[in-house]
Amino acid sequence: MSTASSLNTPSMAGPTPKSLDDTPPHNSAPSQSAPDVGRPGDKFLLVFILVYVLLMPVASALTRPTGYFSLFLDQVYGPRDTQSILMVVGLAAFHTYSFSAVVSVYGQSSHPGGYQVRSPRLVKSQLRGLPHRLVATHEALMDVFPLLGTTAAFVLATHSLAKNTTGSPSVTLIDGLFLYAFVKHILYYIVYLADIPDLRSPLHTFSVSALLSVLYELYRGSA
């Protein structure tokens, strides 16, 4: 076999990539489609959704008049009324859109090139460690704040359907909002920054379940 013909023979290793962008990642999926089988993540997803529902009675029990969290609020806060709802939402809004937002910008400024005014979102994906968590906590609070605002609005709008003897919205409903703020804006925020993922996800789940329990209590009161 001549040297010329051997040079013209295609390589069995495939064409040489033109650049690193042409090189597929080492863990890329094969070209052939895998059989449609149940993945472990599918079952995990169903279990996680079930956990949200199962934690609702726990949150509701904590916010009953004799619940541990309500008794705690009696000692550290005092009587709750409509103004308490506005205070919870206001503090949560300040923490979400002011305090954590400034902390997020501080985290982004740790980038070697400093804070990128022209493309801040591109820089976020390049952060690691504490700067990344400073940004991620802000985004995590923003993700759930609309649910808090919606729930609080329903409590205020339907308070005539769930009144206690003072004519204010049920203390159980108000304490549910307090419970969410305490878990999400204090415990969850601290745990996320401290990089304790084993506690971070359960705290997030429980905080959302607290709001879901408030909505369920409203539904029961209006049914």
Automatic annotation (TrEMBL):
Residues 1-11, 25-34 have a biased composition (Polar residues). It comes from the Eukaryota. The chain crosses the membrane at residues 44-63, 84-106, 140-161, 173-191. The lineage of its organism: Eukaryota, Fungi, Dikarya, Basidiomycota, Agaricomycotina. Keywords: Membrane, Transmembrane, Transmembrane helix. Pfam families: MAPEG (PF01124). This is Uncharacterized protein. Residues 1-36 are annotated as: Disordered.
